[in-house]
């Protein structure tokens, strides 16, 4: 059945205007004022923005990590995402040395099929590059539409790959049109700092942060950029937390390199003192890279505002406080890294960004949705509101006031990382390809309704206009 969203304020990365939106067959079929369509279900969006659905470029659902498995899987995780205004997630498909890449991808399809309530894609982790993996990648890009590869520069003896693997991945990506993503921390030195801390009897959660200083994030970011330049390739740095890394990215971009960066809501709003909470509560705030001193937050906001960082990922990776985080009660290095953020990403960016005057509405849409669509081969099917685009839409009340809490969130995990934070604005209804997933704040979606997304190859040209709009004239000059 057709749907007609009336009287909303349509906001994209470039425009903001009052209009009605007609949806037919899951696609936006008309945008204009005073639209009528016989037999269409009419949805009144008076007083609300209509945004393109959020795209979360960084999730870990149903992921084994740190001797346990994330609490939220593709069902609970995507339900929570939808409540929060996100209609697409791109999850990391983990691989291990010696296991064929195809079988890792099959494992991720098995985890997600029949469960996801919104559309989803995969990035592919690269743990080693040899003749075998090299020969598989072109077909994986072509058949699976997996056009982004992830290389970990940290988590020694677990996920960490060496610089040679990163360099070769960058070369393959350049040749076949993929984007290389890095977790940028110097894992070798961190490993030594952890051993030193434990040997000195320092086992509390705060030592997680103290053994992962921001200099080592800046160093790894710079190293990845150097290798990208040598390979004449393209790089996306995930979860940027600090001034050192943001500056390396900005400097590379000034030189015309195809380097992009993401930050996360936790790094914009929480700081390292959270890890000092008593009774082991600091473990709730263990992420890698760690939370930083508060002054880094304004540097990250500046980088988002000026377009030096392009996206906000949740890095959703949820573990219960009781029964999972406490694996590290007597050794901080055994605390599973990560936190529950998928549901609050969109609202935190709106509230802390737009409502507090740090970014414009258009920048909000760009950061929460459009840039990810462009970087990861989904635009213009996703990431905007245009005739012919998927009707992935969020009807958002900008006046609502609420408080983030585990009492009310929809993630399965037993705490909320932003507990007690007041936010302005709330998604009221969320549609995925024209079907309600959230209707008047109630979940009405169906596990399995989410479709796997085969994504287009990396297209640097698609990124230039939005970046230009955000004050950059140098992007695309390479
Ligand atoms: N970030 C984090 O602490 N956990 C998830 C895995 C990763 O992204 O490094
Ligand atoms: Zn990471
Ligand atoms: Zn992550």
Task: Explain the overall architecture.
By secondary structure, the protein is α/β, with parallel strands linked by helices. The protein folds into two domains: 2-51 and 389-398 and 425-469, Urease, subunit C, domain 1, CATH 2.30.40.10; 53-375, Metal-dependent hydrolases (TIM Barrel, Alpha-Beta Barrel), CATH 3.20.20.140. Helix content is 31%, strand content 23%. The chain contains 13 helices and 19 strands. The protein has helices spanning 74-83, 101-112, 131-144, 163-176, 187-199, 206-210, 214-231, 243-254, 265-269, 295-305, 345-355, 361-375, 464-469; strands at 3-11, 16-24, 27-32, 41-44, 49-52, 54-59, 64-65, 68-69, 86-93, 119-125, 148-152, 179-183, 234-237, 258-263, 311-312, 393-403, 422-432, 435-439, 442-443. Strands 1, 2, 3, 4, 5, 16, 17, 18 and 19 form a nine-stranded mixed beta sheet that branches. The chain has an eight-stranded parallel beta sheet with strand order 6-9-10-11-12-13-14-15. Helix 7 (214-231) runs parallel beside helix 8. The protein is globular, with a radius of gyration of 21 Å. The model is unreliable at 471-478 (pLDDT under 50). It binds N-(aminocarbonyl)-beta-alanine (URP) and zinc ion (2 copies). N-(aminocarbonyl)-beta-alanine (URP) binds at residues 60, 183, 239, 287-288, 315, 317, 337-338. The modification N6-carboxylysine is found at residue 150. Keywords: Hydrolase, Metal-binding. Residues 49-437 form the Amidohydrolase-related domain.
